[in-house]
Amino acid sequence: MKFVDSAIIHVSAGNGGHGCISFRREKFIPKGGPDGGDGGDGGNIWIISDLNMNSLTDYRIKKTFYAENGKNGSNSNSSGKKGKDIFIRVPLGTRILNINTNTIIADIQKKNQKVLIAKGGWHGLGNSRFKSSTNQTPRKKTEGSRGEYKIILLELILIADIGTLGLPNSGKSTLTSALSNAKPKIDYYPFSTLYPVLGTVKIKKKKFIIADIPGIIKGASSGIGLGIKFLKHLSRCRLLLHIIDVTTINKKNINKVKFIILKELKNFNESLFKIPRWLIFNKIDILTKKKIIKITKYITKKIQNNQKYYFISAKNNIGTKQLSKDIIQHLYKT
Description:
Blueprint: E1 6-12, E2 45-49, E3 64-66, E4 86-90, E5 94-98, E6 103-108, E7 114-118, E8 149-156, E9 162-166, H1 172-179, E10 197-203, E11 206-212, H2 227-230, E12 239-245, H3 254-268, H4 270-273, E13 277-282, H5 289-302, E14 309-311, H6 320-333
Parallel strand pairs: 1-3, 2-4, 9-11, 9-12, 12-13, 13-14
Antiparallel strand pairs: 1-8, 2-7, 5-6, 5-8, 10-11
């Protein structure tokens, strides 16, 4: 199933029912008083969170939603029935924007969160409402008002504590799989990850959610590759893991490899660039012990004093347990 993280939908709340003009017509009461009832309110349209959804795929085809109109009032002071409400279910992390006004209506981040996005029309009044001491037979009623109509952008931004980023084939998916219960597609060619994957990591009573997004390449923030499409899914993260294939770096290119990712982050969003990042040098299982010692020395010299970094093998689970523990410690102390 294709991962869909944005959709434009049209929502029309129900119109209010009209009031009624009516007079009592009973035996022996030929000229009874007014008994026209009110109309019913139009149905509302709500957005409600659904923990069982992880994509906006449902709205690729169905894009228009109508709530029911309120029924008109009738005689005997009978009020019209209220129109039925419509509930649109979305995954956690969905941001709702009004396209016409370019304003954020709501950000769905809680279980069972419900937000009114289009209010139904108000009911019209029947003529019995207008009876007075000076007007015993009013022939006045009001019509129900129209329900709200809006064009809505649904934009899914995944909720995760930790985000992985790096060049294609750096081992992000393997690390996500090693740390969590997620099962992302893992292969030995670039862009095997085509959409974000979430996994949950539990250590005793504490846990965190990790997001794996497709690899980022040079020029991603300008629309090259897949990364730019999914970078937004890291914006809610509290920590980013910058995965680097240790076998591809040497004394001369380590800063260049780091800079590619950092530049794309900064170009995409300044706030994303400011999220704390740890450097994860992956695939040390491929190196000899001699090579590991050598590469560790010059990487250590190049790393800034306040930059946290790890040497791991996600494939062989070398260093991953300690990484998980440190992530838990970082998240639960901040």
